[in-house]
Amino acid sequence: MSVTASRRTEESSIEPLVEAFMQRVVAQSPGEVEFHQAVREVARSVMPLVQSKKAYRDAKVLDRLVVPENVYMFRVVWTDDAGEVRVNRGYRVQMSSLLGPYKGGLRFHPSVNLGVLKFLAFEQVFKNSLTTLLLGGGKGGSDFDPKGRSDGEVMRFCQSFMSCLFRHIGSEIDVPAGDIGVGGREIGFLFGQYRKLTHRFDGALTGKNVAWGGSNLRPEATGYGSVYFANDMLSTRGESVKGKTATVSGSGNVAQYTVEKLNTLGAKVVTMSDSNGTIVDPDGIDAEKLAWVMELKNVRRGRISEYANQFRGAQYLPGKRPWAVPCDLAFPSATQNEIEEEDARTLVRNGCYCVSEGANMPSHADAVEVFLDAKILYGPGKAANAGGVAVSGLEMNQNAGCMRRSREDVDAQLKTIMHSIHENCVAYGRENGFVNYVNGANAAAFVKVADAMVQQGYV
Ligand code: NDP
């Protein structure tokens, strides 16, 4: 029987159980479509484990894992530069503290709602379990859009947001970090307000500036880690990223450092994007061009379309994603569901055989099926992008020990952690000579969380 056929047979025997479980989840959380998508994927991977272990069934591990321990929702009021009062929604979803303090980023984007944050918090629980560090899972944010806002407006928003959030976080309780729309500038404003309100200087946030408690290599960690994970996947076929052509989506934090590491390791990156469109540069986005992109996005806060005016030979494709551009490797690094089924088919048809997800859940469920059926090297976000939270975990350790590790030291630890995540995915995901990294990541992460749930009792 082929790998695909055997996967389908196993799936068909557990599908009724998954469906019954999902009906309960959907009834409990109507309309939260991204959350349902993330839960269904995990349920499909781990249902055989749940069925095989009575202790998991008795403890109702799956039913408990889909209900957050706490959810805080609050009103964030601030004034814009014209003096007009603005109102946004703020959230913090504390999903699980089984393995450590709640840990996960804050996202500021107009698309943020409770369902999106529950999906991200749920994914985070599994991702953090994979890192081997003592980290629970959470996520938070707001529907505030920092794009086009002045530094003063962003600061006032962050201060108002933290005025509500500070009661619920702390270095041993819940440690937020950045995500879409929350970078070094926002973490600075949030930390300043936390410090003022609590009268404490502690590691209640990660992604801080290195000069006041941040870790070396934290900004780079998610992008670098995603490339290390791709290299580990390629090594199972005796290959590496060197000499390969890569497409990258996004042009924010994760995308920038993905491109940087791919360049360093000898790959050629031919695309970057933002929510308005994609630039294609057949000559490659080399270090000099990347430095220009970083200045454009991080300092001038401009749009990626400007790249095509700056560099000869580059083309801007308004409204398009990068996936029709032929490549060996793809690094989706922008947002959820940015690869749909047809995009996945196009990627595979054009020769792409390795996808490493810098973003969280960037591939739609149908696209994931295409990758698994084609048996390409497909690294899901909760494994491939865990480098960011791993270095955040190292930042927490450094803050607790009042010490700082060198760049080289952190990079070595990041590589070791990504390598161990890869090994774990292989150990749990091997299916007739093929590694199903989706099942591998979900099962490896789940066992640790579920065992902790059983051992810590019915709380
Ligand atoms: P940034 O805000 O720095 O960059 C986000 C990039 O994605 C921007 O180029 C943005 O374009 C683009 N983007 C955002 N929303 C959309 C959309 N709806 N459609 C198309 N493009 C979009 O965020 P990060 O780089 O930090 O995060 C990127 C992804 O990586 C997210 O999925 C995040 O959850 C994930 N991640 C981040 C980690 C981190 O350490 N920062 C850790 C692990 C995962 P535009 O400027 O037009 O909005």
The appropriate CATH architecture of the largest domain is 3-Layer(aba) Sandwich
Q: What percent strand?
A: 15-25%
Distance between the termini: 44 Å
**Which structural class do the helices and strands define?**
alpha/beta
Overall 3D shape: globular
CATH superfamily of the largest domain: NAD(P)-binding Rossmann-like Domain
Helix content: 40-55%
CATH-defined topology of the largest domain? Rossmann fold
Radius of gyration: 21 Å
CATH class of the largest domain: Alpha Beta
Order of strands in the sheet with most strands: 9-8-7-6-10-11-12
The description of the largest β-sheet is: 7 strands, mixed
Low-confidence stretches: none
What small-molecule ligands were found? NADPH dihydro-nicotinamide-adenine-dinucleotide phosphate
- SS elements, strand count: 14
* Tally of discrete structural domains: 3
**Mean pLDDT over the full residue set:** 96
Number of helices: 17
Give your account of this protein's structure.
- The structure is a single chain.
- This protein has helices at residues 3-28, 33-52, 54-58, 61-65, 114-130, 151-165, 184-198, 218-235, 253-264, 287-299, 306-310, 341-349, 365-373, 381-384, 387-400, 407-429, 437-455, and strands spanning 70-79, 85-96, 102-108, 137-142, 174-177, 245-248, 268-274, 277-280, 315-318, 329-331, 354-356, 377-379, 430-431, 434-435.
- α9 (253-264) links the parallel β6 and β7 (268-274).
- With 459 residues, the protein is of the alpha/beta class.
- It has 17 helices and 14 strands.
- It folds into three domains: 3-65, no CATH class; 70-203, Rossmann fold (3-Layer(aba) Sandwich); 221-384, NAD(P)-binding Rossmann-like Domain (Rossmann fold), CATH 3.40.50.720.
- It is 50% helix and 15% strand.
- It is globular, with a radius of gyration of 21 Å.
- Bound molecules: NADPH dihydro-nicotinamide-adenine-dinucleotide phosphate.
- NADPH dihydro-nicotinamide-adenine-dinucleotide phosphate binds at residues 178-181, 183, 222, 250-255, 274-276, 333-335, 338, 358-360, 385, 388.
